[in-house]
Amino acid sequence: METNVPKRRDNKKPLRVKVISLGNAEVGKSCIIKRYCEKRFVPKYLATIGIDYGVTKVQVRDREIKVNIFDMAGHPFFYEVRNEFYKDSQGVLLVYDVGLRDSFDALDSWLGEMKQEMGSQANMDSIVFIVCANKVDLLKRRVVDEGEGRLWAESRGFHYFETSAQSGEGINEMFQAFFSSITDMCENGGKRPVSEVSVGFTKEQADTIRRIRNSKDSWDMLGVKPGATREEVNKAYRKLAVLLHPDKCVAPGSEDAFKAVVNARTSLLKNIK
Ligand code: GTP
Ligand code: MG
């Protein structure tokens, strides 16, 4: 007799998953994959032409996973080639170079391109995202710090890893977390488990910290117009202080943001009669 209850051994079937890599050209997507699959690093830049495809088998707990990896070209020139490969992915490696701010700022547009190409099929809750802050071996040229990267990733429910394809730092840990989360998601009916990337802070807090980091002056930081009154400055300050006070906010970078807000208020009040 047929029943709807899945047989126990069905759970042990090998799982087939599709993952893609996204990020600007030259951030190290192919090298990260090569480091994991082939345990080697190639210093010479060989741009991916359109797409590179590979398969690897991994074991997660008692389950064999067959991973189809679609390594995308980051160069805008290849948009027409890569756009059809977004669909049906269970995992996305979002990569940026910690020495190139543009590559970090571009993460939003990569998500945008992905959503656009997936169209109505876009269900971002059914995809595991891992953010790789790559090239951490190049300490001197680093311009995007860990707090900023982690905040961007974790405020979206994405994992965050610091990696170096050159030294191998973080690569195995990152892929293990990636495949384990994808397996959990597939065994959870295709929904990304939320508890795992439990962030403990709100999107409003994350967005505010980002806005403060990018503000151009003290007025902008407090979110008031130049020439605002003492009352307006104090009101804006109190709102931000409640949101970001270190006792209340555990988001990465909140302490620095809170200090910056205190300083901005002090310097503005000095000059307002
Ligand atoms: P596209 O295929 O054009 O999208 O680029 P990509 O993101 O695949 O970059 P790729 O992996 O080809 O690496 C680009 C360059 O960065 C190469 O010269 C690599 O050797 C170098 N590179 C990649 N990862 C690292 C890293 O972790 N540290 C250092 N120092 N260099 C790296
Ligand atoms: Mg590549």
TrEMBL record:
KW Nucleus (keyword) present: yes
Pfam families: DnaJ (PF00226), Ras (PF00071)
Limits of the J domain: 217-273
InterPro entries reported for this sequence: DnaJ_domain, J_dom_sf, P-loop_NTPase, Rab, Small_GTP-bd, Small_GTPase
Gene3D superfamilies: DnaJ domain, P-loop containing nucleotide triphosphate hydrolases
GO MF annotation list: GTP binding; GTPase activity
Protein name per the record: DnaJ (Hsp40) homolog, subfamily C, member 27
Annotated organism of origin: Hippocampus comes
